[in-house]
Structures are given as C-alpha cells and as structure tokens.
Design goal:
153 residues; two-stranded antiparallel ribbon; elongated
Length: 153
Amino acid sequence: VDTDAQIDLESQHRNVIASDAFRTVAEQIGEIGRQQAGIAEEIEAGKVSEAVLRIAEFVTAWQLAQQVLVQNCRLTQQSLLEREYDGQPIIEHLKTLLERLTDIREALEAQDMVMLADIVHYETPGLCEAWAGMLNHLADQLSEAVAADSAEQ
C-alpha cells in the first residue's frame, strides 16, 4: 500500500441524510395506510392468519418509523420530537401511534376480530396518512435548513 496515498470520503450534510430517511419511511407508511382496508376485509372474511401477517408488516414499519425518528434526532443533533406538526408536538403524534399499536395488541390478545377490523379499517389509515405527512414535513424542514445554510455561505 502506498503510504502517500490519500483516501477522500465524501458524505452528505447530516440534514440531507435525515431528510432522505424521513421521505423513504413516509412513502412506506403511506403505502401501508393504503393497504389497511384490505387487511380489514381479510379479517371480516375470516382470513385472520393472512391479516395477522400483514398486521405484523404494519407493526414492523412503525417500529422502523420510530427508529428513524430517534436516530435522526441523534444524527441532526436536534430535538425533532418538540417540533410541531398539525398543531401538535411530534411527541404527541408518537403517543397517539403507541396508543393505536397498544389497541391492536389488545385486540389480538383478546382475539377480538371485530375490534381489530375496526381499528385497522377506521383508525390506522388516517394515522398512516398523518405520519406520512409529518415525516415529509420534517424532511422539508431539514432540507430548508440545509438550503439556508448553503445560502449563508
């Protein structure tokens, strides 16, 4: 190995990386939201095993969304949970998400398929839409901060 060789590593601004991650997860959450009516129909048709598998995918996507939110707070060194979206701090949106996930778990544990179908059909699509919007909003804010920093330099 040449000891005089130089390796240059390039990376994007941390806000750009965080913004891209938010947009990717927002797209996934939006797609999952569009699938909720189909999951509810499966439950109502007695195809519970298939529906539960799709609900597991739904829960995994939400875990990813939570992880990306926390990791982006660290990456950007900003408290993104205190920012507001739709008149509420992000932390309140997170609490609402956790409440719905708890409702889903409780319905599954109680084997209450009527409650599960209602949650999946009536509550989770709006939650997915709100979260997709919120994550895109955060992505926009981070992108705007990068643009403002670039304009100042």
